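A quick word before the example. In earlier lectures we treated sequence and structure as two separate objects. From today on, think of them as two lines of the same record. Here is Flotillin written that way.
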Amino acid sequence: MHQKRRFFAVIVWIIAAVAVLFIVLVFVTGYVKASPDTAYIISGLRKTPKVLIGKAGVKIPFFEKKDELSLQLIPIDVKTSSAVPTADYINIKVDAAVNVKISDTPDLLNLAAQNFLNRKVDYIASVAREVLEGNMREIVGKMELQEMVSDRQKFANLVKENAEPDLAAMGLDIVSFNVQNFVDDSAVIENLGVDNIVKIQKNAAISRAVSEKEIAKARAIAQKEANDAEVAAAQEIAEKKTELAIRQAELQKATDTKKAEADAAYRIQEEQQRKSIEITTAEANIAKQEKEILLKQKEAEVMEQSLDAQVRKKAEAERFARQQKADAELYERQREAEAKKYEQEQQAEAMKVQAEAEKFARAQEAEGIRAKGLAEAEAIRAKAVAEAEGIEKKAEAMTKMGKAAVLEMYFNALPDVVKNAAEPLTKVDKITMYGDGNSAKLTRDIMQTVTQVTDGLKESTGVDLQSVLSGFLGGKLADAAQPAPAAPSKHPRAPKQNAGTPAE
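And the structure line, produced from the sequence above:
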């Protein structure tokens, strides 16, 4: 009995030892540890595979299988293989740098395991590149070139948003999407920047011209101030020199006077007082006057030299200032001429465009103007017919009136003839007549001009205005000389009433 128990105990310990050994063997052979950039997919006994990322786990040998998926970034260079037309029909090529990776979310990780399990990174990159290129082509066709070039981030976001659902269906995430460049064979992108370059160059040229103008102005002002200071200093120096020369002349005058007096006394002593006091005094006075005359001559020469130096310095300073000012004004005019020339070129281009528009507008107006011209021509013709009839009736009336009508026209035109003949003389400020010229001759010349006008009228029309006028005036004088017959009164003349008495 005791041996049987010992036997069962040994059996239990053996079974327990085998079980422990089996567990240790399973643990040793099935223990796995995944790094943070790798996903272990353990499948076999479970309905849903077990995923290990950055942690340890156990797989049962012979019953479960371990597969790996890399979670590292996959850099992809996405380029359009051929030119793609934009929304404004410009063919371009796009180059972008994209980073994708297998998603670590459970649902997307399961999709990635189904699509890329045990696949190399190059295969995953090639599949993602095809999807990204297709989406990039789609977005290029929806946007205009200028919009894509000016806002690359918007273009990248649209492509990323458009491609994310397609890549998510494969278990991939887009980490970053950066547009490298846009290329077109027609240099359209390069020409887009020409307008901005021209504007920047224009503004820079205008700013440079303004700055140079201000610099030239400041330089001219500083030069003027320097010249003024130099002239003032030269003038002050000349004044000091003049004062010094005058003081020296005064001292020299006193010295010469003392010396003359000593010389005179010495000569008087030498001559042993052979001359009287009056002669000695006279000689001394004569010598003094001669010295004074010489001194005044020296003073005049010093003053003349000082004034000459002062005037010369001032003239040179003014000439230099005018020259600097003229140079600055010349430079400023050159800059203004260049700026004006550039503005005129721009205005000419604008006027050319405007002229094309006006040409089309005038072509549209031409038809209306032609119809309006026909109507106006008809009105003018009717008016001309009416005026011709009026002129014909006026001619008939003048034929009936005869010479009286001619004289009436002559008298009406005579003031204008005289006025026009004398009109040149009104513009003369002063008349100088030589020989026998006087006011009577001037009047005679004016009347001679009127006579020449009437003679010209006689030669051109055959009407002798002098003869007509003489006949007309002779007839008027004859009629005035004959007394008019008294006409019989049909009614007696009423007596004149007083203004203050009412009529009965």
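Notice the following. Confidence is low (pLDDT under 50) at residues 484-504. We will return to this example when we discuss secondary structure assignment.
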